[in-house]
Amino acid sequence: MRMRGHRSRAVVAVTAAAVLGAAGCDAFGGGGSEPSASKARQAKPSPSPTPVWDGSPASIAAVGDSITRGFDACTVLSDCPEVSWATGGSAEVNSLAVRLLGASKAATHSWNYAVTGARMADLPAQMAQAAGRKPDLVTVMVGANDACRASTDEMTSVADFRAGLEEAMRTLRRAAPRTQVYVASVPNLKRLWSQGRTSELGKQVWKLGICPSMLGDADALDSAANLRRDTVQQRVEDYNTVLEEVCAKDARCRFDGGAVYAYRFGTDQLSHWDWFHPSKDGQARLAEIAYRRITARSS
Questions:
Q1: If we measure between CA atoms, which residue out of 56, 64, 65, 81 comes closest to residue 136?
Q2: How far is CA 264 from the centre of its chain?
Q3: In sequence order, what are the residues at sequence separation of 6 or more whose Cβ sits closer than 8 angstroms to the Cβ of residue 102?
Q4: Contacts of 20 (CB under 8 A, 6+ apart)
Q5: Rounded Cα–Cα distance for residues 245 and 208 (Å)
Q6: Which of 101, 102, 248, 296 is most buried (most C-beta within 10 Å)?
Q7: Comparing C-alpha atoms, which of 106, 126, 111 is closest to residue 64?
Q8: Rounded to an integer, what distance in angstroms lies between the CA atom of residue 59 and that of residue 115?
Q9: Which residue from 246, 288, 279, 291 is spatially nearest to 80, judged by alpha carbons?
Q10: Pairwise CA distance, residues 194 & 253, whole Å
């Protein structure tokens, strides 16, 4: 009995040692040998990803329409690019280029390819010009003229607006794959109408053909006039949705989040020549909106 008990205890001890040994291999990698490849991979820290967005670009190109050309900010029915929110050198505006690059560098490392009257269909050609400079950043502000037509039937369709923006982005990416893009929303045209219609001079200038779909018959408040303005406003909102969606597909693109559309331009921010385009003060506000968005740490 004593021998059998001793033998049984020995078997138990050997079995326990085997179990512990097996557990040791699992928990400690074979009793102190090098960890398995999978364990090593788990233990190795992942490198920090390189940020895609750089809030300190060294060069800027601007594309778009009359707003970016500073139209009617200095004299009636004329461009005034020196007060452009994007690239102007005026101290009154403190443009995006000046804020990001400094006044002296902005004069040599920023380019304005916007054209008064431009629509989304014109953007790919402008983008090709901008891409030729290989800028660190391109600013885009376009869409108001797509809604500002002779009638609502002539407004650019949402589908064509999307196709134009997508083509412009492809044009840029073929020539400048690392260039960053800031996309500004289309302003609230109905609010501009409600502000500008308080000026008799402004309404006279509007009759020369400034945004007739929204500003025509400025004092009319009948159902047809209200429907016309609401139709234009809805198209602007649809355009802004397109700007946001297309921009979101590109890792190096930032939409303004609707900040320009939401900005409440008052009479001080509107041109006293046409009471529709931004004044110098309005241009400064656009520059501030863009600067905040571009330099924000997260998208």
A1: 56
A2: 19
A3: none
A4: none
A5: 35
A6: 101
A7: 126
A8: 20
A9: 279
A10: 32
pLDDT value for 39: 47
32: Cα within 13 Å, side-chain hemisphere: 0
Q: Which of 268, 273, 139 is nearest to 204 (CA)?
A: 273
pLDDT at 295 over 50: yes
Distance of alpha carbon 55 from alpha carbon 258, whole angstroms: 19
Task: Identify the residue whose tokens are 């003060």.
Answer: 281
Residue 271 amino acid letter: S
pLDDT at residue 1 greater than cutoff 90: no
Contacts of 75 (CB under 8 A, 6+ apart): 273
The mean predicted confidence, pLDDT, of the chain is 87
Per-residue H/E/C for the chain: CHHHHHHHHHHHHHHHHHHHHHHHHHHHHHHHCCCCHHHHHHHCCCCCCCCCCCCCCCCEEEEECCCCCCCCCCCCCCCCHHHCCCCCCCCCCCCHHHHHHCHHHHHHHEEECCCCCCCHHHHHHHHHHHHCCCCCEEEEECCHHHHCCCCHHHCCCHHHHHHHHHHHHHHHHHHCCCCEEEECCCCCHHHHHHHHCCCHHHHHHHCCCCCHHHHCCCCCCCHHHHHHHHHHHHHHHHHHHHHHHHHHCCCCEEECCCHHHHCCCCHHHECCCCCCCECHHHHHHHHHHHHHHHHCCCC
Write the pLDDT tens digit of every residue in 59-99. 999 999 999 999 999 998 899 999 999 999 999 999 999 99
Q: How far apart, in whole angstroms, are the C-alpha atoms of residue 190 and residue 128?
A: 32
- Tokens representing 231 are 């139709």
Cα 40 from Cα 87, distance rounded (Å): 52
